[in-house]
Amino acid sequence: MSDQPLKDTQHPSGPVMVRKLKVIVERDLCIGAATCIAIAPNTFVLDSEAKAIILNTIDKDTDEVIIDAARGCPTAAIIIEDDQGNRIFPK
What is the DSSP string of 18-41? Predict the structure, then answer.
């Protein structure tokens, strides 16, 4: 695992809530391209298996940046839902 503080050490790939967004990384889909890290460096980092995990500093990235990071994932491995469970991305 990363030595950076995680949002949820028991579930490093989520789901985690930040403001009104739920963020989930589908580990089976994640290929470690790291596009999410380039877009939202306060939200994501790769673990020892080259899978995206969610940092404790997620609240430093705006909702739009987090959604853009999900959109940038080449395998659509990052799922974003609102606080009502409605999927924002991918649709």
Answer: ETTEEEEE-TTT-----HHHHH-T
Measured distance CA(7)–CA(17) in Å, rounded:
9
Integer angstrom CA distances of residue 54 from 33, 60, 79: 15, 12, 12
- For residue 38, being part of any structural domain is answered with yes
Q: What pTM does this model have?
A: 0.91
Q: Which two tokens stand for residue 64?
A: 């739009």
* pLDDT value of position 5: 87
Number of domains in the chain: 1
Residue 46, domain CATH: 3.30.70.20
Dist CA 22 CA 54 (whole Å)? 11
Q: What is the mean pLDDT of residues 51-72?
A: 97
Does some domain include residue 58? yes
